[in-house]
From TrEMBL:
Pfam families: OsmC. It comes from the Bacteria. This is OsmC family protein. It comes from Massilia litorea.
Amino acid sequence: MEVKVSWNGPSGMSFRAQTGSGHMVSMDGAPEGGGHNLAPRPMEMVLVGTGGCTAYDVVLILKRGRENVIGCDVTLQAERAETDPKIFTKINFHFVVTGKNLKPAAVERAVKLSHEKYCSASIMLAAMAEITHSIEIVEA
């Protein structure tokens, strides 16, 4: 896996990234740091990637278990250290899983498997941050 990140130039603190799969992503800094607030911050992108990783796992696990899942949202709320390096210290994942007759135990199992076995991003972050999760099941 490879990505290339390039600075957009001396007029600010924006960057573009090209992924190995050929996609482009923009990032920008806060105005107080020289950015123009035109794109997500790099640390927000870490959360975006982690949320995508775990949501992907949860949906795949539920589908493989023949659960009738039709929606999955995960909201990540993170706290960071106050001093440099400002690593994540706490991250809560709130899953809202929508489907028909979903078994709560199956949803809980899917989230647990993602966090403990499959989602490389959340497992990596768990080495430094306290990870918690909550689950809400919505009947379709």
